């Protein structure tokens, strides 16, 4: 009887802790179907290629907040160029810095060039903004998993593919926070 009660108590504790973990992970996240997520990624790319920058910016912003590194890089470049948004070098650099969390040469090269052009006081301010975005939209905050891949079928890892955390048939996408620029 006592063993049965202990097993029941342990089982209930495990279920409760699993439910609490799932609730804490899902807080601040939207559940979307995988096809909807792929469509959102493609929407941003196609809109950008078609020079529909307002549409591209909105799509990239959503997927950048979710943790997609290509979207974060695209959003950073759009801020730097004033495409679909007002030009903002600080925010552009910060988004590029978030994308550079993964070890991809292209992401690091642009960040290195910008950092080389900054004065020390600019760098201090930029690092604060970068840290804020990484805390909100970096790999740890978004539960995104990213890997380097070869797009040309060769051995050169030249692209980053990110996958959101799964929740049953859905994907969990981190929402943008209200104070996002």
UniProtKB/TrEMBL annotation:
InterPro entries listed in its UniProt record: Sel1-like (IPR006597), TPR-like_helical_dom_sf (IPR011990)
Record's keyword terms, sorted: Signal
Metal-binding recorded as keyword: no
Domain of life: Bacteria
Signal peptide: 1-22
Keyword NADP tagged: no
Entry protein name: Sel1 repeat-containing protein
